[in-house]
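Students often ask what a 'structure token' actually looks like in practice. Rather than answer in the abstract, let us consider RES domain protein, a protein of 154 residues. Its sequence is given first.
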Amino acid sequence: MRAWRLFRMVEADSALTGLGEEIVGGRWNSPGRPVVYAAGNLSLAVLEILANVDGVTLLRNGYCYCTLDFPEEIVGRVSIEELPQDWRMPQHPCLKEVGDRWLAEGRTAVLEVPSAVVPIEMNYLLNPEHEAYAIVAAGEAVRFEFDGRLVQCK
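Now compare that with the structural description of the same chain:
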């Protein structure tokens, strides 16, 4: 399986450690728990960034992406049917509970979850503290520039 990680160039050294999400938390994890967020394709990764970052920041900060390859055997899944109807609401506590429980149980290194931006597409949470995380193969970081028209939409 392949996922795509889009990150700021200044965070390149820690982009696969989960450090940022450990500090501030994310949609699917509480602060204090490192998680690497990735998307099922590069276009979704772009939309996820656009949904969470203002236009000035997009243009000011340089971005890179890399691919993450991993076997399906290390992936757990959460389906939309398992979530409450209002799960797309920002900061829904149910999602942090699901992610924190997944991290605590440690059954898989990767968790496939629906995207709140495009619910029929998938995002991937990777647990850098799981022993199977070592078999996740990261591609080389490639510079990414946002199309200026996307920033105008913000």
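One point worth highlighting: The longest helix spans residues 93-105. Ask yourself how you might have guessed this from the sequence alone, and why that guess would often be unreliable.
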